[in-house]
Amino acid sequence: MISFSGRLVLLDIEGTTSNIAFVHEILFPYARQHAGPYLEKNATHPEVRKALDLMALDAGAADFAGWCPEAWPADNAREWLVAQIFHWMDADAKLTGLKNLQGLIWEAAYLEGGLRAPVFGDVPARIRVWHAAGISVRIYSSGSVAAQKLLFSHTEAGDLTPWLSGYYDTTIGAKREAASYATIVRDAGVPPKESLFLSDVPEELDAASSAGLKVALVERPGNRPVSATRHPRIVGFDEISIPGVG
Ligand SMILES: [Mg+2]
Question: pLDDT for 156-184, tens place per residue?
């Protein structure tokens, strides 16, 4: 049990609010499985055309028309592109255009396909309690802010965004750098010592701790075991006690 009497709780997602397996065993396979059908249905959508041009840039071409050897959106053009996408996915390529298209596929999955993001059982109730106690609850994850908002709008426990006050991704800085945490607490208007950061990654806790935040290591089912860390450990958010709240 750790006691916290501050005004900001900053949460990591993967391994903290949600199972690590969700991204790797659900989201990425979903994007792969639905890439072909999604492109067939949305071939001429402006957002899709933008993603196609970004993919062409990733491949070293000036634009999609100059990259794709077939006339878009004919069947053979889509087959050619899907083969390229699978090749990148197999190589786990971190490319802007590919990420962009994956984001569009996931957005459609949440909005139309009934996809729901898992959160650990203690998460919804605790963030409601913290919010009601006047604590600002915010998210800091390597996934884009847009993807974070989609996730928390469509969890298995419903829409949790009414209790979340801010979202940060790596455009604000890397998760293992102290400066990122200093920037976030400044943005939230809360002193570092009144802020608590929860994550499953010791190096992220080291960085936040260096910036003056309180931290705790979250040990969820499916997380990689952490042998040595100087930080307190919790298995769930119920282990954080807030004076006057419980
Ligand atoms: Mg994590």
Answer: 999 999 999 999 998 899 999 999 999 99
> What CATH class has 24-111?
mainly alpha
Ligand 1 center–CA 138 separation, angstroms: 14
Residue 100 CA, ligand 1 centroid: distance in Å: 21
Kindly state the average pLDDT of the residues 39-65.
95
Among residues 218, 223, 222, 208, the alpha carbon closest in space to that of 239 is found at 218
Question: Please, which residues have CB less than 5 A from ligand 1, an ion?
Answer: 12, 14-15, 200
Query: For the domain 2-18+117-241, what is the CATH code?
Result: 3.40.50.1000
The domain segmentation of the chain, as residue ranges, is 2-18+117-241, 24-111
Instruction: Report yes or no on whether pTM surpasses 0.70.
Output: yes
Single out the residue of 42, 240, 236, 11 nearest to residue 141, CA to CA.
11
Compute the distance from residue 27 Cα to the ligand 1 centre, in Å.
16
200 CA → ligand 1 middle, Å: 5
Give 242 Cα–ligand 1 centroid separation in angstroms.
Answer: 23
Calculate how far, in angstroms, residue 10's C-alpha sits from the geometric centre of ligand 1.
12
Q: Which amino acid is at 123?
A: V
DSSP state for residue 172 in the 8-state scheme: G
pLDDT per position as a tens digit, 64-101: 999 999 999 999 999 999 999 999 999 988 888 998 89
- Alpha-carbon distance of 74 to 150, in angstroms, equals 31
